[in-house]
TrEMBL record:
Record-linked Pfam families: TetR_N
Residues of the signal peptide: none
UniProt-recorded name of the protein: TetR family transcriptional regulator
HTH tetR-type domain location: 11-71
Keywords: DNA-binding, Transcription, Transcription regulation
The species this protein was found in: Saccharothrix carnea
Gene3D superfamilies assigned to the protein according to its UniProt record, in alphabetical order: Homeodomain-like (1.10.10.60), Tetracycline Repressor, domain 2 (1.10.357.10)
């Protein structure tokens, strides 16, 4: 039976698990990371891992959720909500999110290893994510619903619009299939422009 830990010990071990998990998940990946490796810096038995997290996937998800506020600031507050109009907002959001998926080690790892993404997604608690004050997913859904009501987005189910945006965000997973890497920026720019234009109604600017 795992030992009981004081509040101070729990805080220390949790911090070490988060730090070690972040380092290992982004270098060797979720599947190759072992409980022995995760628990080594804590100085306690590996069986105690389950006192803190239900699984490695749950630890990975916790790391991602702790980034939610910063991710929202970059892709929603400074991109989606900073556009001159709806079309420009969508362009900014897609470019900012694609950039996030490329440079954010935790997210880019999942995008390049779909089996790990499926494993982490399996631990997702929708109620917890929805309750986050700085939830980028909720912010995007609210934006789409609002712009649909005002007629600035095409007259289709908002879930379809969200699905189209999500489809664009899968592009990094297949970057190696896009041919000449020097053309990738132009391909992305054109794709984002086509999607943003196609989702918005007439009268939007083309800046």
């Amino acid at each position: 039976m795992p030992p009981a830990f004081s509040a101070e010990e729990k805080a220390r071990i949790t911090a070490l698990l988060l730090d070690t998990g972040d380092r290992l998940f982004t270098t060797v990946g979720l599947r190759k990371t072992t409980l022995d490796e995760l628990m080594a810096p804590t100085g306690v038995a590996k069986s105690s891992f389950y006192v803190f997290f239900d699984s490695k996937e749950a630890l990975y998800l916790e790391l991602m959720l702790r980034q939610a506020a910063e991710v929202k600031r970059r892709v929603v507050d400074e991109a989606l909500l900073a556009g001159s109009d709806t079309r420009d907002s969508l362009r900014r959001f897609l470019h900012a999110t694609l950039h996030e998926l490329t440079v954010n080690p935790l997210w880019s790892r999942l995008m390049s290893h779909p089996e790990e993404m499926r494993a982490v997604a399996g631990k997702l608690d929708p109620a917890r994510v929805t309750a986050l004050a700085d939830n980028p997913v909720t912010a995007v859904s609210d934006f789409v619903a609002d712009r649909r009501r005002t007629g600035e987005l095409v007259d289709v189910d908002p879930a379809v619009i969200i699905g189209v945006l999500q489809t664009v965000l899968l592009v990094p997973m297949f970057a190696d299939r896009l041919g000449d890497p020097t053309l990738h920026p132009k391909i992305i720019d054109l794709l984002v422009d086509i999607v943003a234009t196609g989702l918005t109604t007439q009268g939007e600017s083309t800046t």
